[in-house]
Write a structure and sequence with these properties.
Bound molecules: 4'-deoxy-4'-aminopyridoxal-5'-phosphate
Number of strands: 16
Shape: globular
Number of helices: 9
CATH class of the largest domain: Alpha Beta
CATH superfamily of the largest domain: D-amino Acid Aminotransferase, subunit A, domain 2
CATH architecture of the largest domain: Alpha-Beta Barrel
Strand content: 25-35%
Number of domains: 2
CATH topology of the largest domain: D-amino Acid Aminotransferase, Chain A, domain 2
Largest sheet: 9 strands, mixed
Low-confidence stretches: none
Length: 301
């Protein structure tokens, strides 16, 4: 029996059989949308928010998802259950589907819908104890008025170029600035800085994806009595912050202890970051929705 089942257009298939056309415009042009979602102890975290973002992204690029939001929610829950994973990362992808070699999406007949569920660890475990060293890179964030980061599209070249620069600098992650030099975000995560008891994170218009972990952390910061500000900031503000951390579905909450060679605080994960992380770990369980209660009936063969 295979240990991994992938949902592909109405059926569950093995990894070897999970194949789509080379004419898919997701493959040819990055034309499509996706979500990364997390399951913790059998609870899917902020599922509705992820699904809302997926459907907003699709609407923005005029991509019709061939399922209602409720149906797709059920299919995702069913795929998690089928894979029998209590703790996992879910990747839901909807691409424009196969067309011809031209750009015109009207020649694509039917989106491809793929759901992959896998165990995941993006950064080595010990880095959650020690904190990350990161750099800022030359690659700038796509301007939001050119390609909105609110659309979580399959076009991730901007982010990949950032990750390549991080690798060249021998670090695990990097921050990109926007075209005006304000800090935007990491290659696949949002950034927060802490000064005193105030938390800052770049607003969406600077070029940050409005991350769902970011939302959760802003809620936690408010609930714990911190001042939470969405404000643009520069590299100088990062270098001189008391604490810096990154957030993301894959990255969760991870401290940053060095940026461009500048030691942040005392070079260890800060007390406020640790408080946020501790509360985050509680909430991913308490705020999550049980997979079985999401799963009603769906039509997978
Ligand atoms: N920014 C980018 C560019 C990302 O790809 C991600 C990961 N989805 C994030 C931020 C974090 O968003 P979330 O917390 O919703 O995963």
């Amino acid at each position: 029996m295979p240990d991994q089942w992938i949902y592909l257009n109405g059926e569950f298939v093995t990894k070897e059989n999970a194949k789509i056309s080379v004419y898919d415009h997701g493959f040819l042009y990055g034309d499509g949308v996706f979500e990364g979602i997390r399951v913790y102890g059998g609870n899917i975290f902020r599922m509705e928010e992820h699904m809302d973002r997926l459907y907003r992204s699709a609407k923005s690029i005029m991509l019709e998802i061939p399922h209602s939001q409720e149906e797709l929610t059920n299919l995702i829950a069913e795929t998690v259950e089928k894979n029998q994973l209590e703790n996992a990362y879910i990747r839901a992808v909807v691409s424009r589907g196969p067309g011809d070699l031209g750009l015109d999406p009207r020649n694509c007949h039917g989106a491809n819908v793929v759901i992959i569920v896998e165990p995941l660890s993006i950064f080595p475990k010990e880095l959650y104890e020690t904190g990350l060293e990161i750099v800022t890179v030359a690659t700038r964030r796509n301007r939001p008025d050119v390609l909105s980061p609110k659309v979580k599209s399959l076009n991730y070249l901007n982010n990949i170029l950032v990750r390549m620069e991080a690798q060249l600098a021998n670090v695990n992650e990097a921050l990109m600035l926007n075209d005006q030099g304000y800090v935007a975000e990491g290659s696949a995560d949002n950034v927060f800085i802490v000064k005193g008891s105030t938390f800052y994170t770049p607003p969406g218009y600077v070029g940050a994806l409005e991350g769902i972990t970011r939302n959760a952390v802003m809620d936690i910061a408010n609930d714990l009595g911190y001042v939470m500000k969405e404000e643009p900031f520069t590299r100088h503000d990062v270098y001189t912050a008391d604490e810096v951390f990154l957030t993301g579905t894959a990255a969760e909450v991870i401290a940053v202890v060095k940026v461009d060679g500048r030691v942040i605080g005392d070079g260890k994960p800060g007390i406020h970051t640790n408080k946020i992380l501790e509360e985050f770990r509680k909430r991913v369980i308490s705020e999550g929705v049980k997979v079985y209660s999401l799963k009603n009936e769906s039509n997978v063969s």
